[in-house]
Amino acid sequence: MSVHKTDIKRVTTHVIQEMKTRGEKISCLTAYDYSMAGIVDAAGVELILVGDSASNVMAGHETTLPITIDQMIYHAQSVVRAVKRALVVVDLPFGSYQGNSREALSSAIRIMKESGAHAVKLEGGLEIKDSITRILSAGVPVMGHLGLTPQSIYKFGTYTVRAKEDAEAAKLLEDAKMLEEVGCFSVVLEKIPSKLTKMVSESISIPTVGIGAGPEADGQILVLHDLLGINKAFKPRFLRRYAELNDIMHDAIGNYIKDVKSKSFPSMGESY
User: Is 190 annotated in the active site?
Assistant: First the structure.
């Protein structure tokens, strides 16, 4: 039976909160374009992140730092046009919110107005509290991001697990509580020990969404191209591949090339 648009219930920040309260896990994936976002949304995930990982996945950069706010808005617009149900969250890119809360608000408002997305995500804790507070004061929902924060990769110098030491773990927990107190609707926990994820998830009432953070988070997120096996080079411990599309696509394209060269494509039945 086909599902009419009027039959689809939108996922909101309130729905995400209710899921944590019920103990129901939250499924999240990234998307960066119209076609893939439509597939992800129709499959039933609750939250779609238009991640600054587009810098790596779509543009081929080594880090997330080069992507601009204009590029993030382009990707977000493409995703929003396809989505009928999921909550769409957009990353504020590097340099668009750190150290200047007025610029942070301007960046968030641009993304919301020009893309039609439902929320924004910022990396960091106490050091960006002013930016988060100002964005929230304008009525824009904010998702936090703690642990491994890829925009700070040059400060860390490595993509290794964060918060293994007591001091960093204590700061992360403190930051998570601060994000809840100022009004964030959820927080991503990236590449931290599972026991810390459990502690954070039990210490705050807003949902936690893990990536490389173990099973104790209230939800999980992966980069779509990693989950589908399109990006074969990326093989972190936390990634489970659910398909090997790189191989399937390679074979399909190879078969097309073979048929073109052998003159079996197009056939008369495929001609006018």
Answer: yes
Q: Give the CA angle between residues 9, 222, 215 to the nearest 5°.
A: 90
Query: CB of 97 within 8 A of CB of 103?
Result: yes
Residue 45 DSSP one-character state: -
Give the model confidence (pLDDT) of 240-271 as tens digits: 999 999 999 999 999 999 999 999 999 999 99
CATH number of 5-241: 3.20.20.60
- In the chain, what are the domain boundaries? 5-241, 244-272
Residue 91 marked as a ligand binder:
yes
pLDDT 10s digits, 90-115:
999 999 999 899 999 999 999 999 99
The catalytic position among 46, 180, 190, 216 is 190
Is 53 labeled as ligand-binding? yes
